Amino acid sequence: MLLENLPFPASANLTAAEILTFLPGGLRCADVVYRFFSNGGTRQGIHGIISTNRFPQKNEWSANICGSLLYRTMRKAGFDGWTCGIHELWHKDIAASWNEEDLSVAGFKTPCEIGEKGDPAGPIPFSHLANGVKKYPAGNDALDLTRMVTYAVEHPNEHWQYPTHYDELLEHIGGPHPPSTEHTDRYILEKWDKWVKQNTYINLARKRASQSTSATMSLTTTPRPMASPNQLEPHKSPMLLNTGIPKGTPRLLPAQMQRTKTLSGEVIGTIANRFGRVLPSHPDFMNYVRRPATLATAPDSVKWDSADTQNLLMVFGTFRYPAVTSIFSPYAFLCSRDYPPFRMLHHIDQPHPGDVSGWAENLRWAAEQHELFGVESWTECPEHMRLISRHRFEQIWVSDEWLADYMKRGENVQETVN
Question: So which domain of life are we looking at (predicted)?
Fold first, then answer.
């Protein structure tokens, strides 16, 4: 049972992952929801943490129900018309003074404290916070509460009560740990949001490959579902995901469609490839002709040496995907890496023809630069990924593979319309 009126400690720093794992009823607290979305939270990131770290309870935390709960929480608290996408309308007046690194829940009010029905819950045994939990927060997802729950579960003869004994138990296990940037809501929720979207892509790619009659993805390049972000913390493995989308780039969700005009009449076509990487709308995109390539070099020069290879092999050996055998496969680390050592793009194999993700398009663009101009300065580092995506966006550059995929989808939709 979720205790929606279980009070928060009078003074405590709780990460987003800790709240969602041990206190999921906190999503019925408008202060919690406001904090998450003021710090870049998304419904996908929130649901990803809950569905990964907690056992399902009668479908209570499906993605749709999770979203409905967020809306209901905010609207009952007086935020009429609130949705995840327009939270900024309520936050903009205090955004300049908002401190994203503040993890304190001091003063957070439960639903019954703002006039809703019910009475304050608790106190409850600290160990009961582990009920329904299948995976504890790990790495930077965890701070003080994770240590406290772990201790309480491992010492059942000690009767610690939540939230009454919060300060006492924390001192008993060594005192609070100082939070860092990696503990903030933005860092954690964006990490989980990327993980959810990446796994969504993998499922789509695998389904697409299984349905394809013209090509089958080889065993050496098949994307594998990645481990949860709890298992991929930066200090353990530098395999965090990178979207490759420059800030300010217009976005569409994969399911969204944009209407375009073609010589064959009006059809419904999508110009958004996977993960919302968007190319500009064009009235005759079916007649697209790629512009002549122009030289584009990276702003800094990085040399790859044998030490980089050895370091990457160590990481790859620990976290490799079984079907991938080379560190230079585009899927060796699922996509581009966020932490060094960074691979040179001209060393990386070309992606599968059916892969039209932003990462795959960046690789094809870099391969063209290497083939035509001998450019060997681009790497998979986040800054280079953003710059290449910007180049592609400004040039309206798409690969033959992307265009073939677009044409195929356009024809399929046109057949459906007709």
Answer: Eukaryota
Per-residue pLDDT 10s for the chain (418 aa) are 467 789 999 999 999 999 999 999 899 999 999 999 999 998 889 999 998 899 876 545 566 678 888 988 998 899 988 888 889 999 998 999 999 999 999 999 988 888 777 777 879 999 999 999 999 999 999 999 999 999 999 999 999 999 999 999 999 999 999 999 999 999 999 999 888 877 665 555 555 545 543 333 333 333 344 455 554 433 332 222 232 323 333 322 222 223 222 222 222 122 223 223 333 333 345 566 777 788 998 887 666 766 777 777 777 765 555 667 888 888 887 788 877 888 999 989 988 888 888 899 999 999 989 888 888 899 998 889 989 998 988 888 888 888 877 777 654 433 433 3
Judge whether 208 lies within some domain: no
Residue indicated by tokens 């040179």? 344
CA distance 255 to 108: 36
Helix, strand, or coil here: 194? helix
236 shares its domain with 287: yes
Task: Say if residues 279 and 395 touch (Cβ distance below 8 Å).
Answer: no
Residue 181: what are its φ and ψ, rounded to 5°? -60, -35
Reading the block at residue 145, the tokens are 């509460």
E strand or H helix at 144: helix 144-154
Q: Which of 202, 250, 256, 249 is nearest to 225 (CA)?
A: 202
Question: Can you give the residue range of the structural domain that contains 39?
Answer: 16-186
Q: Which residue, 138, 165, 186, sits at the end of a domain?
A: 186
Say how far apart CA 311 and CA 305 lie, in whole Å. 10
**CA atoms of 124 and 127, how far apart (whole Å):** 8
CA distance 150 to 352: 44
Domain's final residue, options 166, 186, 206: 186
**Strands (DSSP E) found in 243-318:** 258-262, 265-269
Q: Please, are residues 34 and 75 in contact by the beta-carbon 8 Å criterion?
A: no
For residue 43, how far is the Cα from the chain centroid?
Answer: 11
Q: Does residue 258 lie within any of the structural domains?
A: yes
Tokens 């800094």, located at residue? 300
